[in-house]
Design a protein that fits this description.
Two copies of one chain form a homodimer.
Chain A lengths: L4 E5 L4 H6 L16 H7 L1 H6 L5 E5 L1 H8 L17 E2 L8 H9 L2 H54 L2 H26 L8 H8 L2 E2 L6 H16 L8 H16 L1 E2 L4 E2 L9 H20 L2 H11 L6 H25 L29 H32 L3 H25 L3 E3 L18 E3 H6 L3 H10 L7 H18 L9 H22 L9 H17 L3 H11 L5 H18 L3 H8 L18 H4 L7 E2 L1 E3 H9 L7 E7 L10 E8 H9 L18 H7 L13 H4 L2 E3 L21
Parallel strand pairs in A: 9-11
Antiparallel strand pairs in A: 1-2, 3-4, 5-6, 7-8, 10-13, 11-12
Helix pairs in contact in A: 6-7, 6-9, 6-10, 6-11, 6-13, 7-9, 7-15, 8-23, 9-10, 10-11, 11-12, 11-13, 12-13, 12-21, 14-18, 14-20, 14-22, 14-23, 15-18, 17-19, 18-19, 19-20, 20-22, 21-22
Subcellular location (chains A, B): Membrane
Keywords (chains A, B): CBS domain, Membrane, Repeat, Transmembrane, Transmembrane helix
GO cellular component, one term (chains A, B): lysosomal membrane
């Protein structure tokens, strides 16, 4: 760790860099590259060739110095970018093999390809919907059993006075279930922890996170999320759906499973990063769609988090996957609920319908909504700061799997205890109405025919609690209950996020927000008792939920649409939008969004949408690394092996140059011919595609695109390829395999333009 | 016209070409460029410089030959692309002036800029909403008066038997009103004809259509659309809203009006194509949003029709404009309807709410929906083919304004006559229910307490007719009425589209579709009289409307979302999507979409999303024009004036090269330094930015970015700039003004990649 260098090989994600004018977190303030002057002299190669590898390389000696004093366990420093992340290759490699294949294809071939893309998207939607359905039913069944057991126990002991036994039963049950979930995550697939949204966000932005879209991750994720929700943690099952959808997409689109060692020999054309990422976008959208019943929101989520380019057909396919996903979920849930054909459960969470007639808002309420947005932003920033510290603590001291499992169990037990205590000491009794909307009403110390209102919020799956906060009649909760609930749930949720369990933060955020939002509504109603417009605290619960969620995750467009779709009422579009905007502005003033924090803490080299405003000062010349590691068109095998093995230059792509034979006085010694990727070189080495020195006698069979596709995506490391001393002397002809038309950036281009 | 050449200067819309892999209609089948071999030898300049000007230039001798025999009046040939269209400049010109300004700006400056972008978008939404509100109220008032007068007249003459007088009254009234609308369009602003959607689509795709976003166009458009709707033509007022929103956006964002000669000295930073187009997208979205009450649909419309890049902040702002627009409309309409605070009229057309409980569909109905989609596709293609022939006819023979006005009047009179005849001969009487949903029920020959059902469809604004087809009770219409109505309205709408009046095709399409859709529903119900699921013909009307509209305009994603938002029910998302997909596939088999037909007929060089599938055969080298017109960094004024005046090379941007002083044997005589635009050269010439031959004595004041912005967007033609013989001998230094980092494309890049 003493010589950490950052390399963000922009060369292999050209559409990112060419697209939206992206900046980089590296280039803030004092971090001006020190090589800049030197480069402009040395970089004469660029004058003609316009190499595309604008690499960022900085040796952070200052950071290193400050690191040296610390203990060995510190696995990271958030300001450093990790070397373990590579970028996806977005540029189509238009080499001779590829062009030959494209030119062999007929019109019919392209049409079949297009149709199979649609089929894949349909499958993605269908499978994602099924998974959502499975999770929903599993959670409902298991949680039902658990609540029934605990409820009976509580009822038994309420009168005889041994409620501590109930508490212990509850806590032990929760801990046991959560332990199961934590063990599979911590020991088998740590990447399945959390909601997976930061990881998917990175993936869609072009960062290849290892193991993130594997089958094993999916299995662990699904089982893990069931355990954590059933285990009563302050989590939701919605976030993980996005990750699940993405894994499904990555699997289905490749037509094979490396884990299961099955190759169906279909969809081979899609075995490259460009195509795969498109499908992963569709999968993520299908996940959102299934989670919230929001197909349009899903599409916008994919676009907001991932897309640099707007591609009409792709978006249309993403929308198709989303539609199929929500339809599948809806259809199977309607069968499960013994009401086939009733397609009114489009998502895992349904906010219930806000009817325009009954719940309307007025122009003068908008400032109030905006104020609530600001509160949401503040609370969200607080949540994020606390979670940030907690995560730093966890990274330092809780990084062994068994410790992680124990922490998760502890949280589960504490959650149960706190809930129980809150319910126990609450004296907010509500009459048990004829509608009987509560699934598990706890009478506790209330009179007969009444139930404990605090228990509605705590002794229930969070989805139900949210819905009851939105829609229950005015007067169902008293303000003290809501205030206490907000406070405890806030800290519980904050503690829970980042545990090594699969779980999302959407629902807890909504729940916290709905609680304090409803509180605001009640207070307003009591202040202005005459006017009926304030009477319904449900809409304030909705606004509060939006504000809190916006304050924590800082999503904007897609979240607005998701909320609008989930409430089924476009009238609330404008207030929700204003609230989310306010929450984002206020929150950003203090701290980044939760997902961005976790991305940063994982040292992922993530490029944001906008370059820093003042980065017009910097040009490509000043941020690129130098000297550039180049290969010749006809290169010695030994040189290639050495370059690939050299850990200090482990770039992912190398420019291929041609030496101009003129005398050197013009200062133009080399000309760019193309770009070749590390993975391509590895495949070439593996297949021994060498030209012996006695020219033009080939020692290898003709390589096909298929060879590259078969190796994709798990290319072996260079160390696993044995190259004999004789072979080192051979030459490799790169012309046929390199991409002759890589993206290039002029040296004088400013950073936002890059 | 004898020497028509096509020049699509790709150089100045690099993000288009770099983005989605766009092809060009030029390169189909036999149209292989003849220069290709020649170029690869001549183009040695490209070997190093990588010029960005990949211009397409073809002299179509074969087409010319076939043209020669025809009369002079033929103003176009649809296979030729017109020279009158230029492209927008999307690349930020990062020249020294620009960089200096950017570097002078503080963090605060960028923040203010960002805030002013939001303010502009808010204003755009507000004004667009107001315009929609104005149109709606004006149409309602005027149409109300008209229908009242005619209704009273008809009632008077029904019994005494002089109904022909009523017919004449109706026809004359309609013709007079339509004449007014046609006169202002035909004589004052022909670009305001039609819905304006094809023009906006072109603009968003980077084609600069002359006069399309001017204030005068807006005024003519608004008055024109009121006249045509009140005049009883088979048109809607929704399409023109999109154009209106775009004009508002282009005007507001520039902070001045060239027509009114007012410059508010604000938003000067936005006076360039890049920024302006962003705002125009927002305006178009706000227009859709106001028209259909579909803010998300508006955003997606803008993206589907225009965007190559997905920019998060921009989309978010577009959404904001859409939200404000629908909110403004809703708010003011609620005041107009004396029901302030009731925000349930979000758009100009409201489909009314389809409740999930009452109107549900079943899995086995989906094949039926798809079949209806196919019917919609067929009917849409028929509509488009008929309209295509009609438009060809109009272009040939009806191109004088007074002829156009007369045609419009004729159509108005025929529409009135046909409607009247249909109503007269219809004997479909329906009881006048207690709800009394019809605004102007005509009794005619029906018994007392009944009204003529055909009159509901014809004697009404089309918006109301659509709604009654969707929501009226089963049995309100008999099948014969619907069949006849579909038939006549189909031909009327087809005849009407393309008239020189401002009017949209959305509502007529929906109306035709709703009519035959409802017919299908009724037939299905009569076939399977037992099952209650078929009972409601309203949902079939909805599906039919979607199918017909999809078959005509071929929009996909945005139309689905618009329909979903307008019905307020996400459950119908999947069927609508499948229907639109089917309609598009079936329709595309026969004929392009209506908007694409009109774009082609106007000879606009429009690039589609996808390159032709088999264009991998072609590389940039083969489609570029040669020799390239280059300028030196220090160029003689005379040369520049000559190049700009030369009509055979009227490119919009010129590469600036540096001659390498080496001996020529290497074959690299020139190196690309940058790109300079025609408009920049014009401004430089206007301000006489010359360097006299006695070096470095400048004869001009220092030019500012402001000078370029003041001239934007109406740069004078080169002919209006006088350059004396002495001045012709001066030199111009282009280095400070050229864009040093234009987009470049390697010669060997394939066409889809370009």
């Amino acid at each position: 760790m003493s010589n950490i260098t950052k390399k963000v090989s922009w060369s292999s994600r050209p559409d990112e860099s060419g697209a939206a004018g992206e900046g980089t977190p590296l280039l803030n303030g004092s971090e001006q590259p020190r090589h800049s002057r030197q480069l402009s002299e040395e970089g004469s190669l660029f004058q003609i060739g316009r190499l595309s590898t604008v690499d960022l390389e900085e040796e952070r000696t200052s950071d290193e110095d400050s690191l040296r004093g610390r203990p060995k366990e510190i696995p990271h420093n958030e300001k450093l970018l990790s070397l373990k992340y590579e970028s996806l290759d977005y540029d189509n490699i238009e080499n001779q093999l590829f062009l030959e294949e494209e030119r062999r294809m007929s019109h019919m071939g392209f049409r079949c390809l297009e149709i199979s893309r649609w089929v894949v998207c349909g499958l993605i939607g269908f499978l994602t919907g099924l998974i959502a359905c499975f999770i929903d039913i599993a959670v409902e069944q298991l949680a039902g059993i658990k609540y029934q057991v605990v409820k009976e126990n509580i009822e038994k002991f309420t009168e005889v006075g041994g409620l501590s036994i109930s508490l212990i039963l509850w806590a032990v049950l929760n801990s046991a279930i959560v332990m199961l979930g934590a063990i599979i995550v911590a020991f088998f697939e740590p990447i399945a922890a959390g909601s997976g949204i930061p990881q998917i966000k990175c993936y869609l932005n072009g960062v290849k996170i290892p193991r993130v879209v594997r089958l094993k991750t999916l299995v662990v994720k699904v089982c893990g999320v069931i355990c954590s929700v059933v285990g009563g943690l302050a989590v939701g099952k919605e976030g993980p759906m996005i990750h699940s959808g993405a894994v499904v997409a990555a699997g289905v689109s490749q037509g094979r499973s490396t884990s299961l060692k099955r190759d169906f020999k279909i969809f081979e054309y899609f075995r490259r990063d460009t195509e795969k990422r498109d499908f992963v976008s569709a999968g993520a959208a299908a996940g959102v769609s299934a989670a919230f019943g929001a197909p349009v929101g899903g599409v916008l989520f994919s676009l907001e988090e991932g897309a640099s380019f707007w591609n009409q057909m792709l978006t249309w396919r993403i929308f198709f996957a989303s539609m199929i996903s929500t339809f599948t979920l809806n259809f199977f849930l309607s069968i499960y609920h013994k009401n086939p054909g009733d397609l009114s459960n489009p998502g895992l969470i349904n906010f219930g319908r806000f009817e325009t007639d009954s719940v309307t808002y007025n122009l003068y309420e908008i400032p109030l909504f905006i104020a609530m947005g600001a509160i949401g932003g503040l609370l969200g920033a607080l949540f994020n700061v606390l979670n940030y510290w907690l995560t730093i603590f966890r990274i330092r001291y809780v990084h062994r799997p068994c410790l992680q499992v124990m922490e998760a169990m502890l949280v589960a037990a504490v959650t149960a205890t706190v809930s129980f205590t809150m319910i126990y000491f609450s004296n907010d009794c509500q009459p048990l109405g004829p509608e009987h909307t509560e699934e598990y009403p706890l009478q506790l110390f209330c009179a007969d025919g009444e139930y404990n209102s605090m228990a509605t919020a705590f002794f229930n799956t969070p989805e139900r609690s949210v819905r009851s906060l939105f829609h229950n009649q005015p007067g169902t909760y008293n303000p003290l209950t809501l205030g206490l609930f907000t406070l405890t749930y806030f800290f519980l949720a904050c503690w829970t996020y980042g545990l090594s369990v699969s779980a999302g933060v959407f629902i807890p955020s909504l729940l916290i927000g709905a609680a304090w939002g409803r509180l605001c509504g009640i207070l307003l109603a009591s202040l202005t008792s005459s006017s009926s417009i304030w009477a319904d605290p449900g809409k304030y619960a909705l606004i509060g939920a939006a504000a809190q969620l916006g304050g924590i995750v800082r999503m904007t467009l897609s979240l607005t649409v998701i909320m609008v779709e989930a409430t089924g009422n476009v009238t609330y579009g404008l207030p929700i939008m204003l609230v989310l905007m306010t929450a984002k502005i206020v929150g950003d003033y203090f701290q980044e969004g939760l997902y961005d924090i976790h991305i940063k803490l994982q040292s992922v080299p993530f490029l944001h949408w906008e370059a820093p405003a003042t980065s017009h000062w910097l040009t490509a010349r000043e941020v690129m690394s130098s000297p550039v590691t180049c290969l010749n068109r006809l290169e010695k095998v030994g040189t290639i092996v050495d370059i690939l093995s050299n850990t200090s230059t482990n770039h992912n792509g190398f420019p291929v140059v041609e030496l101009v034979t003129e005398n050197d006085e013009g200062g133009n010694p080399a000309k760019l011919c193309g770009l070749i990727l590390r993975s391509q070189l590895i495949v070439l080495l593996k297949h021994k595609v060498f030209v012996e020195l006695a020219r033009s006698r080939l020692t290898h069979r003709k390589l096909q695109l298929k060879d590259f596709r078969d190796a994709y995506p798990r290319f072996p490391p260079i160390q696993s390829i044995h190259v004999s001393q004789d072979e080192r002397e051979c030459m490799m002809d790169l012309r046929e395999f390199m991409n002759p038309t890589p993206y290039t950036v002029p040296q004088v281009e400013t950073l936002p333009g890059v």
